[in-house]
Design a protein that fits this description.
The protein is α/β, with parallel strands linked by helices. 58% of the residues lie in helices and 9% in strands. The protein has 15 helices and eleven strands. The strands form three sheets. A five-stranded parallel sheet has the order 8-7-9-10-11, with helices on both faces. It has a four-stranded parallel sheet with strand order 2-1-3-4. A two-stranded parallel ribbon has the order 5-6.
């Protein structure tokens, strides 16, 4: 007897491979891998039938039903879905499609929703459960120090990671999503991938998942598992019946801490699945024993007698219905496309009108901007020209300032030299004032002497008055003394005249000094005139000679100033030199 294993070649969910793996453990050998979506095309190498356990999800390509006559099936753990590519729905279970299942019935249904559909179609069926419940426990290879989160929402992962922080429990996050179309694997590699995943589940502390074919294998492996099922989002028909076998919670309940499932101390799984597990194991094992002994039921031969033309006609009718459905869908889509295109055309026309209007506005605006740019360019050119002119003016001003600074520097140097001359003149005047002060001190001393003599005379007069009896004898003495007094008075008068002359001389010197200072201030630019003050001949001359040299140096070409200096020098008593 040949044995075939049903699988889905183009699956994107490794759960399909897990279901195939569960059946593979019962088969004594595998002679054929039969694609689930092409069951009608299977042809064995020999004329003998090929025993196949039909299980899993059926069917995307429903026009490929029923399976080939070369297949001797055990119909168990089946799930029929209304979803497919061609809109056939459950119609493929009518006519020949339903007769096939009736011929090989009763059909084992994976879930209660499939059971309801088959019973409505008049097909004998019973609730068998899923083949993955028959998976044997595996060797425990690791300590239970991790939790598996399998394809759960991101907020669930974040919550578990936060709750387990600091507990020493790590988080594993495998996925059931595969891409065999772009990353093809051999069948052996696909089974190794399944075994690796089952080993991970077997040794986990617990598992939280949204995947049905993660939760059911964990039941079989006795690994605590929580299935997150959201009624408003998930295809609950696939999960019907299994909610009674599993620990189930909604995602919101789990996030709010309302799920009765402690991750650190997870509860044991329910055990009401064991009866289904045992029945499945027995039915599949019996099917294999019978086929190994070539015990084939008569229903196989009955189906062999079915007219192929009827099957082909049924498929044609099914495809015709699918084509009509497709044409209706195409017509609907075309109508929708036409409506969208009409609406799009109206929108495009409206947008085109707005675009034309906006283009005119923009063109007018651009013209205005172009004129404004030309005006601004003209203004900028004028400003550039003005900037050049101002830069020239600034350059000239800078040169003028440099020249003025140079003149100021020369003037400052000249003022320093003039201040030196004034200082020397002040020294001369100070010397003269010192000499005058000495004269004043001499006159003051002589006045004090005269005062003292007057006091002496007064005392003598008092003595003469007191000694009237000696007046006669002292008349000669008095006459002599009167003569002396007269001489002293004359001396005092002469001293007063000399003092007054000295005071007039001092006043003239002060006037000369003041007028010379004014003159020197008026004649700052004639710096060469003052070079004489720094010559050795000038410094070593007497006062009269210095004034003469100064007169010749200053006023040899200026008669008015010369007369002015003559007027000053003529009033100075040069004998003071």
């Amino acid at each position: 007897m040949k044995y075939g294993l049903v699988y889905f070649d183009g699956t994107d969910n490794i759960g399909d491979d897990i279901q195939s793996y569960a059946v593979m453990q019962f088969l004594p050998h595998i002679d054929y891998l039969i694609d689930r979506e092409q069951l009608n095309e299977f042809v064995g190498d020999t004329k003998e039938p090929t025993a196949v356990v039909l299980n899993g999800w059926f069917l995307h390509k429903k026009f490929n039903w029923p399976p080939s006559k070369d297949i001797y099936p055990l119909c168990t753990s089946l799930h029929f879905s209304v979803n497919d590519y061609m809109g056939i729905g459950y119609d493929f279970l009518d006519g020949i499609g339903g007769e096939y299942l009736k011929n090989y019935g009763p059909v084992g249904c994976r879930d209660s929703s499939t059971l309801d559909i088959l019973q409505k179609k008049g097909i004998p069926a019973f609730l068998s459960g899923c083949a993955t419940l028959t998976l044997p426990e595996r060797d425990r290879k690791r300590q239970q120090d991790y939790i598996c989160l399998v394809d759960v929402p991101e907020n669930v992962s974040e919550k578990v990671l936060s709750d387990m922080d600091g507990t020493g429990i790590r988080i594993e996050q495998p996925t059931h999503t595969v891409d065999y179309i772009h990353e093809p694997l051999s069948w052996q590699e696909r089974m190794e991938k399944v075994e690796s995943l089952l080993d991970l589940y077997q040794n986990a502390k617990c598992v939280v998942t949204k995947r049905l074919h993660c939760a059911l294998p964990c039941l079989a492996l006795r690994t605590p598992v929580l299935l997150l099922l959201d009624q408003e989002k998930d295809d609950v028909t696939r999960y019907s019946h299994f909610v009674d076998l599993l620990n189930v919670s909604s995602t919101e309940e789990f996030l709010n801490g309302e799920a009765d499932f402690d991750l650190l101390h997870p509860p044991a799984n329910k055990e009401n699945y064991l009866s289904e597990r045992n029945r499945l194991q027995e039915s599949i094992s019996a099917f294999v024993r019978h086929t190994e002994n070539h015990q084939i039921r008569d229903n196989f031969r009955t189906w062999q007698q079915t007219d192929d033309n009827l099957i082909y006609l049924w498929r044609i009718n099914l495809l015709t219905g699918a084509a009509l459905y497709a044409s209706c869908q195409v017509d609907r889509l075309l109508r929708e496309k036409n409506r969208i295109e009409a609406e799009t055309f109206e929108r495009v026309q409206k947008i085109a009108g707005e675009y034309h209007r906006d283009t005119n506005i923009l063109r007018q605006y651009l013209d205005e901007q172009r004129a404004e740019n030309e005006r601004l360019d003209s203004v900028v050119a004028e400003k550039d020209s003005e900037e050049v002119r101002l830069n020239d003016v600034i350059s000239q001003k800078d040169q003028e300032i440099a020249r003025i600074n140079l003149v100021i520097q020369e003037k400052n140097e000249e003022i320093v030299r003039i201040n030196g001359v004034i200082t020397e003149l002040n020294d001369i005047i100070a010397e003269y004032n010192q000499a005058a002060s000495k004269q004043e001190n001499t006159i003051s001393s002589q006045k004090n002497t005269i005062t003292s003599q007057k006091n002496t005379i007064t005392s003598q007069k008092n003595t003469i008055s007191d000694q009237s009896n000696t007046i006669t004898s002292l008349n000669d003495t008095i006459l002599t003394l009167n003569g002396m007094i007269t001489c002293l008075n004359d001396s005092v008068t002469d001293l007063k005249k000399q003092l007054k002359a000295r005071e007039e001389e001092i006043a003239l010197w002060q006037l000369f000094h003041k007028e010379m200072e004014g003159y020197l201030r008026r004649e700052e630019e004639s710096s060469m005139t003052w070079l004489l003050f720094h010559s050795k001949a000038f410094k070593e001359s007497g006062f009269r000679h210095k004034l003469g040299l100064l007169k010749r140096a200053l006023f040899r070409k200026r008669d008015k100033e010369k007369l002015y200096l003559d007027d000053i020098t003529g009033r100075i008593p040069w004998n003071m030199e």
